[in-house]
Amino acid sequence: MASKDQIVQWLSNFADVLTENKEYLTRLDSAIGDADHGINMKRGFDKVMDKLPTVADKDIGSILKTIGMTLISSVGGASGPLYGTFFMRSGIAAAAKEELNGEDLVALLQAGVEGVVQRGRAQPGDKTMVDVWIPALDAMNASLASGDDAIGALEAAVAAAEQGMKDTIPLQAKKGRASYLGERSIGHQDPGATSSYLMLKALLDTLKET
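The structure assignment produced for this chain is given below.
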């Protein structure tokens, strides 16, 4: 079970994770992109942290939708529209909710990922954040179906996400700026997949520690 306070804490913790990993994400992006993924994500979540206190008393869906709109309006490159859409769609899935059980969490993440796929038109194997989210959702659903609680399901999801992130290294990029590099994109870990993994891990860490 995830409370509204834990969701707010997750967003705050992820902002801290982005601050810690800004250079790392930008370094990954410098190999196959515009060298700004870490900078853009941190800028967006700095804005999120400014906005969060004004909506922290609202329901989970309203909080997430506000975060999505904030990211769309403040983050450059592909990250803003993709992460913004993720939070907008997940907010719709969590409308009026004050807490989330395991099924609610899956529904929230599933809706966010479907938004990302529609917006970016990426498929598994295209070397994008989708390569993290699809296996993570599959693992989470399988874990819940076997009787695990939300924490257990998220642990399975994070393990699958980490593997999905590493599995982007040998792929050739089919979407985004990296796709212009053709075969030269092979051998580099996708920055969007990396930030998605960090976001999911931040959710697990938050629920375990609070």
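Interim note for the steering committee: The radius of gyration is 16 Å. The beta strands are 2-3, 99-100.
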